[in-house]
Amino acid sequence: MAGNLHVRNLDDDLITKLKLRAARHGRSAEAEHREILRQALATEIEPSFDDLAAQLRKLTMNRKQTPSEELLREGRDER
Fold first, then answer.
1. Per-residue pLDDT for the chain (79 aa), expressed as one digit of tens each?
2. Pairwise CA distance, residues 3 & 27, whole Å
3. Which runs of consecutive H residues, i.e. helices, occur in the chain?
């Protein structure tokens, strides 16, 4: 699925650098922009659910935990 991405409020200096880089590579500024994004995201590794869960456990390990049955009971009592 192809889509469009509009980037607003770029510094003029950044746009100039993009155009110069594109010219060096024999591409349009738009094609250069696509290539920069492709390269930047190609090395990005999406964390697995297990890794994210482990990070969350690490962040919350010293916090007081309320047992779920207490929370359910409180919710029922509020009705």
1. 788 989 999 999 999 999 999 999 999 999 999 999 999 999 889 999 999 999 999 999 988 888 899 999 988 998 8
2. 19
3. 12-24, 29-42, 49-60, 68-78
**How large is the C-alpha radius of gyration of the chain?**
24
Q: How many CA atoms lie within 13 A of 38 on its CB side?
A: 6
Q: What is the pLDDT of residue 25?
A: 97
- C-alpha distances out from residue 62 to 57, 59, 77, Å: 9, 8, 28
pTM of the predicted protein model: 0.57
In degrees and rounded to multiples of 5, residue 72 shows phi and psi of -65, -45
- Find where tokens 């007081």 sit: 64
* Burial of 37 per CB tally in 10 Å (0-12, 13-18, 19+): exposed
